[in-house]
């Protein structure tokens, strides 16, 4: 089961630690969706091809692009700078979709009250981060993750660092947050 929790305010220690509040305050999947619009699916990281659920999700959501990213010192070109930019608070004009094949890391998202929620992702997790939400990513202390990335159409990876409040995708995200997130069906 995915683990997610409200983060502490400590910005002085290693970003790759869990950064729980004291006592820890966990957020369940339903609450995570209501507070942020983040969606999550769990697949078997070994048998996912036979299971067919990934194909269903891809077809339903129209993901036409797929590639793979490995974040490790050995595999990711310009590792230090890339990790710095992943951890800068930013948003995208499109959803950020990741399917973790191996390793782990943390996606941090801002909720409606601007609190950080830390979401731990491990092998088998699919996370869908809405367009227009402020978020960031860090590896954990193991410094390794391998994930598939999906996109509708030609991929746009460009991060827009906070503040980006005038962007249309930000305004539309805030409207959805106000109205309450609903699962979109065809
Ligand atoms: C696990 S994929 C690396 C993080 C990333 O691609 C991104 O855009 C973070 O916001
Ligand atoms: Fe991002």
Report on this structure:
With 186 residues, this protein is an alpha+beta fold. The chain has one domain (3-179): Jelly Rolls. It is built from five helices and ten strands. The radius of gyration is 16 Å and the shape is globular. Fe (ii) ion is lined by residues 90, 92, 96, 135, 159. Ligand L3FJYLFB binds at residues 69, 71, 86, 96, 98, 105, 137, 145, 147.
Instruction: Compute the average pLDDT.
Output: 97
CATH T-level fold name: Jelly Rolls
Oligomeric assembly: single chain
What is the CA-CA span between the terminal residues? 27 Å
CATH architecture classification name:
Sandwich
Low-confidence stretches: none
User: How would you spell out the order of helices and strands?
Assistant: EHEHHEHEEEEEEEH
Amount of beta strand: 25-35%
The biggest beta sheet is recorded as: 8 strands, antiparallel
Q: Which cofactors or ions or other ligands sit in this model?
A: ligand L3FJYLFB, fe (ii) ion
Q: How would the global form be characterised?
A: globular
CATH superfamily: Jelly Rolls
Helix content: 10-25%
Number of helices: 5
């Amino acid at each position: 089961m995915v683990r997610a929790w409200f983060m502490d305010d400590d910005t002085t220690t290693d970003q790759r630690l869990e950064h729980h509040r004291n006592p820890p305050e966990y957020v369940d999947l339903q609450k995570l969706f209501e507070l942020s619009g983040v969606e999550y699916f769990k697949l078997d990281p070994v048998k996912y091809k036979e299971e067919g659920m990934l194909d269903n999700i891809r077809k339903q959501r129209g993901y036409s692009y797929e590639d793979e990213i490995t974040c490790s010192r050995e595999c990711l070109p310009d590792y230090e700078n890339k990790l710095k930019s992943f951890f800068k608070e930013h948003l995208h004009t499109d959803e950020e979709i990741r399917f973790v094949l191996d390793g782990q890391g943390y996606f941090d998202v801002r909720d409606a009250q601007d609190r950080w929620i830390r979401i731990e992702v491990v092998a088998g997790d699919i996370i869908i981060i809405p367009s227009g939400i402020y978020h960031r990513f860090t590896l954990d202390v193991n410094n390794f993750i391998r994930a598939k990335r999906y996109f509708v159409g030609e991929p746009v990876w460009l991060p827009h660092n906070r503040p980006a409040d005038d962007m249309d995708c930000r305004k539309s995200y805030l409207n959805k947050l106000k109205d309450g997130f609903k699962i979109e069906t065809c």
